[in-house]
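Entry 14. Structure prediction run on the chain below.
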Amino acid sequence: MQDTAFAAYIASARGKTPAEIATHLQVSIRTVRTYVKRVNAAMNGFAKIRLIRGHGYKLEIECRDQFAAWMRDTRIMSSTELPQTPHGRVTYLLNDLLMRSGWITLEELAGILFVSRTAICNDMKEVERALECFGLRLRRRPHYGICVVGSEMARRLCLASIIMEAYGQTKQGSSFFLGADEAPAEGEPKLSMIASCVGEVLERYRFQINSVSYQNLLVHIAVALMRIKESCRVPMMPEDIAAIRGSREYPPACEIACNILTKIGVELPEEEIAYIAIHLAGKQTLSIEADDHGLVISDEVWGVVSEMLECVWKVFRFDFRNDIELRFNLARHIVPLAVRMRYKMRLKNPLLSDIQTRYPLAYSMATDASTILMDRYGSTLSADETGYIALAFALALERQKSAGSKKNILMVCASGAGSSRLLEYRCRQEFGAYIDKIISCDALNLSKVDFAEIDYVFTTVHIAETLPVPVLEMRYFLGSDEVEQVKKLLRTDRIDSDWVRRYFSRDLFFAHLSFDSKQEALDHLIDRVCERKTVEDRFRELVWKREMTAASAFGNSVAMPHPLEPASAETFVCVGVLDKPVPWDEFGHVVQVIFLSSFSADSGIELQGLYSRLADLLVSAHAITELVTDQRWETLENLLREQPDPPSFVDARGA
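Output returned:
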C-alpha cells in the first residue's frame, strides 16, 4: 500500500526535487531516496522513478496495463488522500486505529504515511488527546504495537466526529469517509440513502432537529452500519434496552430500522435500534416556540436548573431564580443535553463564535452554570454546548433589560406648558416602551429639580450649566434617524462615563510577565490583588476552584478568570500581559493576556455594561496583538477607551 501511494504522489508532484519532497513529507532526503529505491524494486519491469538533473523526480511508465493492475490490486488510496499535514495525519491515524481490531506498530504506520517514526510519535500525542475526549485510550504492548481500547459506542462517536469534521471542512470523499455521497466505500450506503430512511419518520413524529444535528445523525447511522458489517455491535444491558424501549424516541427508531432493512438490506438487532433511539434523544433541539408535546421535564432536571440559577446569582449577582421563562428554556435544553453528556455525544454549534463575541456576559454565566451540569452528569461540557446555554441567558438578560430598566426623563422647554406637553406626547409615542416617568420643567426652574431619580434630560433649549445626568438637545419634531438613536440610548444601561478608571488601574496592570505555566502566572496576579485590594481570605481558593471546574480561556490568547462567588468589596479587573503564551486548558488554548476579574456582591446590572465594553477588546486579534507588542498601561487604557460606547447624546440641532 505504501509503495503505490508514494508512486502516485511522485506522478502528481512532477519536477519536485528530493529536498522539496522531503520537506513536504516531513522526512529526511535520505528517507526519500530509500522510498524511491524500494518502490522501483516493487515496479521492476513496468515503471521507474528517475531523478533528472535540473528537473527533479519523474515517474516513467513502460507498461501502463501492468502499472494499473499493480495500483488496483493494492487498493491504493488516491494521491489527494495522502495526508499532507500533521493535522491530516492525526485524522488518518484516528480513523485507522479506531477501525483496526488488531495491533500495529509505529514503524508500520510511519511507512504507510511516509514519515519518520519521530513524526508519528509526535502525532500520537494529538491522537491520544482526541481519544481521551471520548473515554478511549491507546494500549501499548512490546513487539505488538498499539491499539485503541474502549467501548464500541465510544469508538463510533469518535469516528462520527472525525467524519463530520472532514465533511464540514472539505466535503471530499476520502477513504475513511464512508458516508459521503461523493465516493462511498464499496458496499456502503450513501448518506442520501440513509436520509431517505430517516427524514420521513422524523417529520411524521414532529422531531425538532437542526440541519447540523440531522447530518450528524445520518453519519452516526452510517458508522453504525459499517461497524455492524464488521460484526462490531453496541453491547447493551437488558435493563437499559427496556428503559429505552419505553421512551418516546424508540418507536421512530424502530421505523427507521424497518426502512433500513427495506431500502439498504441490513437488519438491525434490538441494541442497535436502542442506539438510534439514544441519538434521537440527544439530537433534539427545542426552540423557545417549540411544541413540547411528549417532552417530560423531570424533578431532577428542574432541580439542576435551580442549582444553575443559584450559581449565577452567587457569582454574578444577577437574580434569575424567579424567571420562569428562563427556567423552562434551560430545562427544555437539558433534557436532550443530559443524554449527550451521559453518552459523550458531540453537538456542533455553528453560532459559537458569534455567541462568544456578542454575548460575553451570557457566555461567562453559562460557563459557570455548566459546572453544575458537569457535577451532575459526570462529563465535561464542550464550548459548543456552553454556547447553546449562553443563548438562553442572553435572552433572559435582554428581557430583564427591557422590562426592568425603564428610564425617568426630565423634559426642559422654553415655550410654555403647551409645547412641553406636545413633546412629551411625542416621546411617549416613540419611546414609551423604554420610559417610566416624564417630568416637565422650564429652563428657569432647572435649579429646583431633584435629579436623584432622573436618568436623562431632553431639552429644546441650550443648557449652559453642568447637570449630574446626560443631556440631549433635541428638536420639537424628531426625525426618524434621531428617533432610532434615542431608542438605542434608552435600551442601553449607563455606567460611569469614566468606566476605565473605575474598573481598571495602573497599579493592577502588570507587563512583561515571564512564566512557564498557568499556575505561576495566575498565582502571581492573585498575589498582587491580595496586596492591593480588599478581598476575602478565600479569594485564591475561589479563583482556582472556578478555574478547575471550567477554564476561563476566551480564545484569541485571552483568559478572564474570576472567583466562584463574589469575594471583594468592589468590582475590579487586574490585567497581566506575558512575554510568551502559556498553555491554559485541555482544549489546547494558550493565553498571553489575563484579565483577572472580581465582582462585588452588589455589582448586579453594572456587569452588563462592563462586559459589553470589554467584549470587542477580548475578541479583537488586532487589539490584543497591539497590547502584547506594546505592553504599557497607556496602551491598555487607550484600547479600552477605543471600544465602542453605548449610543450617546448628541446635539440633535446640529449646533
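The chain has a mean pLDDT of 80.
Filed with the rest of this week's runs.
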